[in-house]
Amino acid sequence: MNVIDGKKIADETLARLKSQPKPKKFLAAVLVGEDPASVSFLKQKEKTAKELGVDFRLYEFPIKITNDELRRKVREIAEHKTCGGVIVQLPLLEYLNKHYILNVIPREKDVDVLGERALGAFYTGRNLVLPPAVGTVEEILKSLAVRREMFGFAVVGAGFLVGRAIATRLLGKVRELFVLDKGSDFKVLKEVDIVISGAGEAGLINASMLKPGALVIDFGYDRGRGDFDSTHIQHPTSNIESRITYTPTPGGTGPILVAELFENFYKLNSV
């Protein structure tokens, strides 16, 4: 059993950023409502900003805000001369159109790479920065000295925030690639070396479904738990379980995601 220490990997990225000139502009975060998970994620980002000395400004809006009003507010924030980056904390409430809101963020201030201009540039290999989830995968693979072209990958959950961008990045760069959703036949997981999951369903995957020696990079978050059920793996009873390497929840991909977001902020404000 090998547990990947996400905080250690994130700290290495943050140490590198501390040695670079600090951006003079502020990083804006937009929060609608008071969803506990969203508030918690933003607190992690605010904590990292303080550690780096970055000017982090949180803009909070009530649940009843309209699409047009929120879009206008985000545009106003993004167009501020001293704003160097904008985060819209997702998920937004169901009645709000995330694409309509995100698309007002200029590509050069889109640290999450979620607006159409930044995403379009990423998909054609022209964006200045990578989506944080993609950067997170690359940092984990680098820390493990994994040469991705030698291995088979499965991406579980091809969603907007995680899976779609990661699958796009891996396409043509790995030995083989499978993209699955929650209703797919998971038998293929026995054939691949690396499983990346962002389905957001606690316990969707367990060690018995995997190839011995597999690596699991888990972005899923469901009521404080990840997609990968590590219950048995913490006290392995079989050879398969003892050889699995995985990112825990919490403490796995989360800290690295935050560090990658700030790395994007630095890069976008150094050009």
Keywords:
271 residues, six-stranded parallel β-sheet, alpha/beta, 9 helices, three-stranded parallel β-sheet, globular
Description:
With 271 residues, the chain is of the alpha/beta class. 35% of the residues lie in helices and 17% in strands. The protein is built from nine helices and eleven strands. The chain has helices at 6-18, 36-52, 67-78, 98-102, 116-123, 132-143, 163-170, 239-242, 253-268; strands spanning 2-3, 26-32, 56-61, 83-88, 152-156, 176-180, 194-197, 205-206, 215-218, 228-229, 245-246. The strands form three sheets. The protein has a six-stranded parallel beta sheet, covered by helices on one side. Helix 7 (163-170) links the parallel strand 5 (152-156) and strand 6 (176-180). It is globular and about 50 Å long. The termini are far apart. The model has no long low-confidence stretch (mean pLDDT 94).
Give the biggest beta sheet: 6 strands, parallel
Q: Give the C-alpha Rg.
A: 19 Å
Largest sheet: spatial strand order: 1-11-9-7-5-6
Taking pLDDT < 50 over at least 5 consecutive residues as the criterion, the unreliable ranges are none
Mean pLDDT: 94
Give me the strand/helix succession: EHEHEHEHHHEHEEEEEHEH
The total count of strands amounts to: 11
- For the termini, the CA-CA separation is 42 Å
Task: Summarize this entry quickly.
By secondary structure, the chain is α/β, with parallel strands linked by helices.
Question: Which SSEs are present, and which pair or pack?
Answer:
Blueprint: E1 2-3, H1 6-18, E2 26-32, H2 36-52, E3 56-61, H3 67-78, E4 83-88, H4 98-102, H5 116-123, H6 132-143, E5 152-156, H7 163-170, E6 176-180, E7 194-197, E8 205-206, E9 215-218, E10 228-229, H8 239-242, E11 245-246, H9 253-268
Parallel strand pairs: 1-11, 2-3, 2-4, 5-6, 5-7, 7-9, 8-10, 9-11
Helix pairs in contact: 1-9, 2-9, 6-9
